[in-house]
Request: fold
Amino acid sequence: MDHLRRHVATLPPVDQARLAARRADPAVQAGTRCVFLDEAGACAVYAARPIICRTHGPAVRTPAGLSWCHLNFTGLTATEVASQVPAAGVLDLERLNALLAVVNARHLARVGGPERLPLDAALDPIAPLESTSPPARPEGENTP
Reply:
């Protein structure tokens, strides 16, 4: 969330104001639209988008089967997509999520903080982040 907050802080004030106003959008409040998508569907924080957003588009494997963004594979059936994408090119979403959970747990153990935050929390002021630092390590302790 820190990198996302820092990115939002670099946006022009008019863009920051638009993002803040989007928090009141009923679709954003209902969780059916991302606060960072503008009216045309463009992402205002594309360069700093979270990992979950980066996994949208490529073919992914879930317990329910193969899934993909229809914009990347226009007019293709599941069989056609499966035949065009090598197995190594398909993200295993369950495995990715498990690995990300481990990374997140290790990060939180090191720096503290809440386990989950809503994406629009990145629109909150950045000042509290600047005072956040990893806990001091006892003298002589090795870094991971």
Remarks:
- The radius of gyration is 19 Å.
